[in-house]
Design brief:
Radius of gyration of chain A: 23 Å
Order of helices and strands of chain A: EEEHEHEHHHEHEHEEHEEEHEH
Helix content of chain A: 25-40%
Largest interface: A-B, 33 and 24 residues
Strand order of the largest sheet of chain A: 5-6-7-3-8-9
Number of helices of chain B: 12
Helix content of chain B: over 70%
Number of helices of chain A: 10
Number of strands of chain B: 0
Radius of gyration of chain B: 19 Å
Largest sheet of chain A: 6 strands, mixed
Shape of chain A: globular
Oligomer: heterodimer
Chain lengths: 312, 267
């Protein structure tokens, strides 16, 4: 499998007052293979957007080597533009005063997509993203959710190898978010589009990305699969049990790190280490001691992972 | 090449459709542009009720310069006038969206707001030109006819080049829209009158550094067969095409440097 993105020792400094220099990106190395879905995560100002700008050729790196689709992004920006799709939430690719459908037609011409290819892809996007009701509406009258569906379609119509998304779900309601995530997941799985997205919305990452790259202060803190990150940084899984009758805290069970009692003892949360006990053993131990009405095992959330990472 | 032209034709048509989304506003703007051009000309005519020549030019001769400059200004404004959005494109980051498409940024900006209302100014100027040519007794030679026909083209190239270069400075001075504005409207005003009415540093700057004298003044001298009131070599009146090519080259270099600066600094 070819690498779609190859970044080695990427660095970008910005000049501050009195000649002081600040490195927004400080030695990032990264390799993304065809078909991967990578989440770029990090607090504000961590260097995510700066990295993306350098990957798409709209910002010159201070140092380091970048290849996207085998091209030097800044030198061959326009050529690269044919091979990648980019969605910057705030920087629309659509024509404000024209019906949404006309933006798609113009982008088809700009990217020189054959008419029948275009028609097929557009029809697919319109159906999956349910855009038919507002195709004839001027973009300025669309809701944010409708517009973002248009933006993502606009970025995908020329069949890019790589789709880069900067905060694609910011400001969307839950239904719009989920619809967009499902569509992106499908583009990745079915069409094989490589995804790179930055987000603050951790469910985006959980839903879409098998691999996470966490950036802070311009450096890569962690680069790994979601599961491995959960294991390393996520801490405990939790077993939530609803009891038939109120009970005192269920202490002393093997592998349990912490017990929280809620609803006067009717609900208890047992945090347990996956290394020391399995969920099945723990449930058996609980059921042996008390009468259980309902139970639920909760994986450590990506929020927990992120919180641990940023503060460590 | 043909394919590329088709793309721009599509983009232009889209821009025009955007304007026609507000038809009443569009019609009013056309009318306003035409009236402004007419209004300025009336000032010239009124002025000539008090004076008989302006910088060595009679009223009709001034109107020839004025209409030639107006045509070039209107057409240049039509072609590259949208560049006045560059500062805001930079500030809002929308320039990035243009850079992420496989077309040159300048071409995209120029066709993004192809303001047909500017044809209002061209229309008034053409009418005045027709009138002046009809009432003046110019001895027409093939060379003079050729100069008359080529002057709008060289004028567009010259003014366009000056504006492109001036606009490119906003890549360095993002809050500095005043400079390109001053150059744009300044060059419009300056080229509309015989440059011989100006003097000193303003004349040298606007006539020859910013080559405003070649937009309408020297071509008008050539058409009229009139000696240069400034007393400069006669070859200048035939130099507009050469100067236009040079100016366009310089403008392209400045624009590229500006864009490179933008991509280099990531403002």
């Amino acid at each position: 499998m070819d690498a779609v993105i190859e970044v080695d020792g990427l660095r970008r400094e910005f000049r501050r007052r009195r000649g002081a220099r600040l490195a927004a990106v400080d030695g990032v190395s990264l390799s993304v293979r065809t078909g991967e879905a990578v989440g770029l995560l990090g607090p504000n100002g961590a260097g995510k957007s700066t990295t993306i700008k350098m990957l798409t050729g709209i910002l010159v790196p201070t140092a380091g080597r970048v290849r996207v689709c085998g091209l030097d992004p800044v030198r061959r920006r326009r050529e690269l533009a044919r091979r990648i799709g980019v969605v910057f939430g705030q920087r629309s690719q659509l024509w404000w005063d024209l019906p949404l459908a006309e933006s798609f037609a113009l982008l088809r011409a700009i990217h020189r997509v054959p008419l029948d290819d275009h028609a097929r892809r557009l029809e697919e996007c319109v159906e999956l993203l349910e855009m038919a009701p507002f195709l004839a509406t001027p973009v300025r009258q669309l809701s944010l959710g409708q517009r973002m569906r248009g933006e993502v379609t606009a970025a995908l119509l020329h069949s890019p190898q790589l789709l880069v998304l900067d905060e694609p779900t910011v400001g969307l309601d839950l239904i719009s978010k989920e619809r967009l995530r499902a569509f992106l997941a499908r583009s990745n799985a079915v069409d094989g589009v490589t995804l790179l997205l930055t987000t603050h919305d951790l469910p985006d990452v959980e839903r879409l990305c098998r691999r996470l790259v966490v950036i802070d202060h311009g450096r890569v803190l962690v680069d790994g699969s979601l599961d491995s990150l959960r294991r390393r940084f996520g801490g405990a899984r939790r077993l939530i049990v609803d009891l038939e009758r109120p009970c005192p805290a269920l202490t002393g069970l093997p592998g349990v790190l912490d017990v929280t009692v809620e609803a006067d003892g009717l609900r208890q949360q047992l945090a347990f280490s996956a290394d020391q006990t399995s969920a099945a053993d723990l449930i058996a131990a609980v059921v042996a001691r008390v009468a259980v009405r309902d139970l639920l095992v909760v994986e450590p959330s990506i929020e927990d992972v992120a919180r641990t990472l940023y503060t460590s | 090449m043909g394919e590329r032209l088709a793309i721009y034709r599509g983009l232009l048509a889209a821009s025009v459709r955007s304007q026609l989304a507000y038809p009443a506003s569009f019609a009013l703007q056309c009318l306003a542009q035409a009236l402004v051009q007419l209004e300025d000309m009336i000032v010239v005519v009124v002025l000539f009720s008090r004076i008989s020549t302006m910088g060595g030019f009679t009223l009709r001769e001034v109107l020839l310069v004025y209409s030639l400059a107006g045509i070039s200004f209107g057409l240049a404004d039509l072609l590259v006038g949208s560049l006045d959005t560059v500062a805001s494109l930079v500030r809002t980051g929308r320039l990035d969206a243009l850079l992420l498409r496989p077309l040159p940024a300048m071409a995209q900006i120029c066709v993004s707001d192809f303001a047909l209302r500017r044809l209002g100014k061209v229309a008034t100027s053409l009418a005045v030109l027709g009138y002046v040519l009809a009432v003046s007794d110019i001895t027409w030679t093939p060379l003079r006819v050729a100069i008359l026909l080529i002057t709008p083209l060289t004028g567009v190239a010259l003014l366009g080049a000056v504006w492109v270069a001036a606009t490119a400075t906003t890549f360095w001075l993002v809050e500095g829209q005043e400079l390109p504005n001053a150059v744009t409207y300044g060059s419009g005003m300056f080229t509309s009158y015989p440059v011989s009415v100006f003097s000193g540093w303003l004349l040298r700057l606007m006539a020859f550094v910013v080559p405003g004298a070649f937009v309408a003044y020297y071509p008008a001298l050539a058409i009229l067969g009139k000696p240069d009131p400034l007393g400069l070599p006669p070859v200048l009146r035939y130099s507009a095409p050469l100067v236009a090519v040079l100016a366009a080259g310089v403008a392209a270099l400045v624009w590229r440097a500006g864009l490179r600066h933008y991509v280099g600094t990531g403002s």
